[in-house]
UniProtKB/TrEMBL annotation:
Domain of life assignment: Bacteria
Region described as Disordered: spans on this chain: 284-303
Annotated protein name in UniProt: Dockerin domain-containing protein
A Pfam family the protein falls into: Dockerin_1
Length: 353
């Protein structure tokens, strides 16, 4: 039944690549404001009894007292325009107010992940709440019912290839009745390579997902570190073919970070690969000088990463360029300037597995 597998691929427009889950933590700078700490702050209309010096008169009333809702918005239900009797004295409502006491604490998380990706929030290492990012990669989710105390929160997401991001972690102290807003979260791009062993002088495909239309900086480690920039597409996916001719033989690694407007993520996971001699078997690696010649190998139509095989890795590269403009020759198999079902059919014909 194996011969049927490549035919099945023709009707698929994307690929899911299973990878081992990695665990890592990156430092992060986030914006935190607290509703419920009795301090009127930016973004709040009030905070418990602190109304920033305002009274009912600031809202068009001549008497009564302001109240503060649990989400730090003003409640004017107790304000009125009733006639004030002179003997009673006291004038129209002063700066004080009635506090609507919150019954529970909550934390609001917001930031950027990957378009339509599942975003997970961990509380002290345990899954607490999940949400789905929008097409623009932005997400916002509230975790309610928290008790007073210190918490370690972590945020991660998974891209369309099932590659997981690094953990975006930070400690937060939550007080009774407060609402803590944690914004500015920017998850690092996911990253993967099309092969872990590449012959000197051949390209290695580095790909992953981040925010749409962002600038991805790819770092490739070597005695001299190499940096390359590539633009992510509308779906946040990015792909860069790195020429290994600039690298020494031996082990290397790559990582990526993203920038959108004035926001920059940290670098994400490190992915390892090895550059080997052209005369070495694919599974090995020789550390030494750069080779002087290259061994000629059989070339298959559809072998996008030039490893002498046509398999799922090649399909993932072709699928990335599906209906995209200016595809490379390795993806546009019939050289008609576009990647469509015809190219997938050609790949299926030359499939080696």
């Amino acid at each position: 039944m194996l011969y049927l597998f490549p035919l099945f691929l023709v009707g698929i427009f994307f690929i899911v690549i299973d990878v081992l889950a990695q665990q890592s933590t990156v430092s992060a700078i986030v914006k935190i404001s607290v509703c419920g700490n009795n301090i009127y702050e930016a973004g709040e209309s009030c905070d418990n009894t602190d109304f920033g010096g305002r009274s009912c008169s600031n809202y068009g009333f001549n008497s009564g007292s302001l109240a503060c809702n649990p989400d730090c918005t003003v409640n004017t239900a107790s304000c009125s325009n009733a006639t004030v009797n002179p003997p009673g004295g006291g004038g129209s409502g002063g700066g004080g107010g009635v506090v609507v006491k919150p019954t529970q604490a909550s934390v609001i998380f917001s930031g950027r992940a990957y378009p339509l990706s599942a975003v997970s929030i961990l509380r002290d290492g345990q899954l607490a709440v999940t949400t789905i990012a929008g097409p623009n990669a932005e997400f916002k989710v509230t975790l309610a019912g928290l008790s007073t105390g210190n918490y370690n929160f972590s945020v991660y997401s998974e891209d369309k290839y099932d590659n997981r991001s690094t953990l975006f972690s930070f400690p937060v102290y939550v007080s009774a009745g407060s609402s803590t807003d944690i914004s500015g979260i920017f998850l690092a791009p996911t990253i993967d390579v099309d092969k872990t062993s590449v012959k000197y002088g051949e390209d290695i495909a580095i790909f992953g997902q981040t925010v749409p239309e962002g600038t991805v900086t790819i770092s490739v480690n070597s005695p001299q570190e190499h940096f390359k920039n590539v633009r992510s597409g509308a779906d946040g996916a990015y792909l860069y073919y790195f020429d290994t001719a600039v690298l020494e033989l031996g082990e290397h690694h790559t990582k990526a970070k993203a920038k959108l407007k004035n926001e920059v993520s940290s670098f994400g996971y490190v992915v390892n690969f090895v550059v080997i001699d052209t005369n070495s078997p694919d599974s090995g690696g020789i550390v030494g000088n750069k080779p002087d010649n290259k061994k000629e190998e059989k070339v298959y139509k559809g072998d996008s990463n030039k490893d002498s095989r046509v398999n799922l890795v090649d399909f993932s590269i072709v699928a990335y360029w599906y209906n995209r403009s200016n595809p490379p020759a390795g993806a546009d198999l019939n050289n008609d300037g576009q990647v469509n079902l015809v190219d997938l059919s050609i790949m299926a014909y030359y499939w080696t597995g």
